[in-house]
Amino acid sequence: MSDFNTLELITDSRGFATLWLSREAKNNAFNAQMIRELIIALDRVQGDPSLRFLVLRGRGKHFSAGADLAWMQQSAELDYHTNLDDARELAELMYNLSKLKIPTLAVVQGAAYGGALGLISCCDMAIGADDAQFCLSEVRIGLAPAVISPFVVQAMGQRAARRYALTAERFGGQRAREIGLLAESYPAETLDQQVDQWVVNLLQNSPAAMRASKDLLREVGNGALNPALRRYCENAIARIRVSAEGQEGLRAFLQKRAPSWQAQEPRS
């Protein structure tokens, strides 16, 4: 368990953490406290070398209903510079989640509105329920999805982002999968089972190799070729081949046995 008021950070003995949004009575809506606690929680995750990956979830019926109405009302009464400070805090959260060294998986059920789409988009992968409801709802209340927009565009593409940011239409899990926001969409009653399968699959992989691959893909970006990128990729494979886990993985493959990171998992 954790010492947060709006979150739960739970570490699994197999080597991963689940970060739960835990304001169930408020449908896990954002407020200043939750944003600050998320930043602190991600910093703890980043500093824990035992963790292989992070799962981001919401307690209760909904992943997150977006911004808390009481917090928004307070923000409306603040001046420009104070609002700018709030925006910078939210941006720190999104950028820290996006650049986390270990893989991240968001799991979405119920409503995911406004800033919640930012959290989902900042994760490397996301899965959700078919009946989940997504909405970039900001324009309905006179706002814009400003801080989250770079991550949303990366996740769903420019055309889809333009459509849903400008119309504030709701769309479901299967549509979210079609546009790339979700990797997969499942019947709601099977979602927890599917999460378990994703976890088991990720636990098969070399922790160091997943971190290296995430760094690699961040550097590759959209894949535009240039001499510097070629050199980076050449160095990346050379480094991982001579690393401890790279050597162990190659030996295990040639010797037809499980590598150490799989063999060391405790049996249930």
From TrEMBL:
One of its GO terms (biological process) is isoprenoid catabolic process. GO terms for molecular function: catalytic activity. Pfam families: ECH_1. Gene3D superfamilies: 2-enoyl-CoA Hydratase, Chain A, domain 1, Lyase 2-enoyl-coa Hydratase, Chain A, domain 2. It comes from the Bacteria. NCBIfam families: PRK05674.1 (NF004227). PANTHER family: ENOYL-COA HYDRATASE (PTHR42964), POLYKETIDE BIOSYNTHESIS ENOYL-COA HYDRATASE PKSH-RELATED (PTHR42964:SF1). Belongs to the enoyl-CoA hydratase/isomerase family. This is Gamma-carboxygeranoyl-CoA hydratase. It comes from Pseudomonas haemolytica.
